[in-house]
Design a protein that fits this description.
The structure is a homodimer of 327-residue chains. The mean pLDDT of chain A is 92. The longest helix of chain A has 22 residues. Helix content of chain A is 32%, strand content 28%. Chain A is elongated. In chain A, a hairpin with a 5-residue loop joins β11 and β12. Chain A has a 7-stranded mixed beta sheet with strand order 3-4-5-9-8-7-6, sandwiched between helices. Chain A is α+β, with helices and mostly antiparallel strands and 327 residues long. At the A-B interface, α5 and β8 of A face α5 and β8 of B.
Chain lengths: 327, 327
């Protein structure tokens, strides 16, 4: 976690909007001595900030490091609730696991866990998720909606819409949603979403949304056995993406659609979701825990459940599955 | 946690079935010196064990302390899975919270968390559960059934049957089940069960069953505002109950019925449950999160959901509620 003083210094620069701030101004705003300010400025340089120092004018930030630490995320964050409490670490086993543990403490709704690297990142069905350092968004979000447990899977769809829109706006590349929890660019996976539920019989205690996004992975960062099915945003868009900006945009979108969902129900989200969905109307193979279902993907219900019409005309409700589009 | 050597000594006594064991025999079985054995015997005395020492014969245990520590629970435990991994502490905030955290680690199915005291024990809807020291069973059990999430509430009913039977056998007093999660003796509450779920969309990761039982609470241990609605097993049966034996019996019953449930489904459990149920056929008031429903409790479905017939004949399905029997 970043020191509170350095956080204050970065906030002061953020408020200054690119202007020079003198050592004395920074000392006033942080409540420490000018010598202490100078030491913290040196620490920020070590963390990857490029700071210009001009005599009689002071300091200004020229470039922030490509990190997703608390200070990078808080500067410019436009949400009121999501991401206002950030648990950032360089390296974790799994952000999802840490979020589950935090959910047992009294952390506020909207708390996020984010790391530069996961050593045991996990996806649906405890599958591994490859999460190399400084290249992706490896994040878990704690929500506490006052809803019954069967609503939880809808959060995968709400999150998918938020992430697809954020990718479109920040990277200017189209991401499509493959039900239930994958985002694709040009047919290859860039994002997985894992929604987990902690609940009593009739009441959600927490929904923990894990979001893994391949942002700036290079070809060599993608394991060989995945190279035909996985890609990264930068590989497809041809540019390096600011992960912090992407996270900020995702949080803003998710907060917005979470509010829409709570106020107006799932229907408006469903319409948005359908506009990004890739598998609807297609012949698919759906592999669930128990069976394999062949048929046409008709759409999703108001609960977010996939409807598949089998060859004999029977309509099946699918809660979660691996979907393969038949070509 | 008890020292591994003392655990071995207690296991040796358990195997010896009341016979004397010499210091040398204990040294052989534990792999330490006779001096070390002697020191551990003194420690056991401090923990409340009464040990008889007879020259040339050795030691034997006359009485074990009324604790629910690992060694007390393991000696005589007849289960193969439940309670084979025990996290015991003198005092915890909440066994349920610790179990949630352990569930995120790779602890084996059947792991239990048990404590002599909870400082922030909790029941359904984050209500407080009063859990004074050495007087009750404050325990959480981690199961990992391969089932869809909507099955989780059934574990409250399976557990209720196990606890009701165990109380009947150990304390020789009849406990009745009040749907969904309370056990009563003579109309007053002695047990609460809190089943919590950790899940993905279509798959349970863990079911965490919290069981709180007022075992040996005296009148003065029960808060004034609860004295008309709560009691303890010993207050109703007139005898002090071995908490360790009660826990062992609960674990044995629960393991048995869990297996029945997995092998044969909920129906046989439902029949058992109905034989202990107090509210069926009665006019009740059911207060759910959202509303208050008046009607006759008809029974439970094969999913464990309560069916209530309202005055206009409409039948309502209730997932969880506070039930009051109309008199």
């Amino acid at each position: 976690m970043q020191s509170p003083i350095r956080k204050k210094i970065l906030e002061a620069f953020a408020k200054g909007e690119g202007k020079f701030l003198s050592g004395q101004e920074l000392a006033n705003q942080t409540g420490c001595s000018r010598t202490a300010v100078w030491k913290h400025i040196e620490e920020l340089r070590k963390e990857g900030y490029q700071l210009e120092a001009v005599r009689k004018k002071g300091y200004r930030i020229i470039q922030t490091p490509d990190k997703v630490s608390e200070s990078e995320l808080l500067i410019g964050l436009e949400t009121s609730m999501l991401g206002r409490n950030i648990h950032y670490q360089q390296s974790v086993d799994s952000t999802q696991k840490i979020a589950h543990i935090l959910a047992q403490e009294a952390v506020p709704e909207g708390t996020i866990v984010i790391a530069e690297e996961q050593t045991s990142g996990r996806g649906r069905m405890t599958r591994k998720w490859h999460s190399p350092k400084y290249t992706g968004v490896w994040m878990s979000i704690i929500l506490r909606p006052d809803l019954p447990p069967h609503k939880a899977p809808q959060f995968t769809l709400i999150s998918a819409v938020a992430v697809a829109q954020a990718i479109g706006e920040i990277a200017e590349v189209d991401a499509e949603i493959k039900w239930p929890n994958d985002l694709l660019i040009k047919g290859k996976k860039v994002t997985g979403i894992l929604t987990e539920l902690v609940a009593e019989a009739d009441k959600i205690n927490s929904v923990i949304i894990g979001i893994g996004i391949n942002v700036n992975l290079k070809k060599e960062d993608i394991p060989n056995d995945l190279e035909n099915i996985a890609t990264s945003i930068s590989l497809e868009s041809g540019q390096t993406i600011s992960r912090a900006m992407l996270v900020q945009r995702i949080l803003l979108k998710l907060e917005k659609y979470y509010k829409v969902y709570i106020d107006e129900g799932f229907y408006p989200i469903k319409l948005l979701w359908e506009s990004y969905a890739v598998s609807l109307g297609q012949d698919i193979i759906a592999r669930t825990i128990n069976e394999t279902i062949y048929g046409k993907a008709l759409g999703i219900t108001d609960e977010g459940i996939l409807l598949v019409k089998e060859e004999d005309g029977k309509i099946r409700e699918i809660y979660s599955a691996d979907i393969q589009i038949q070509s």
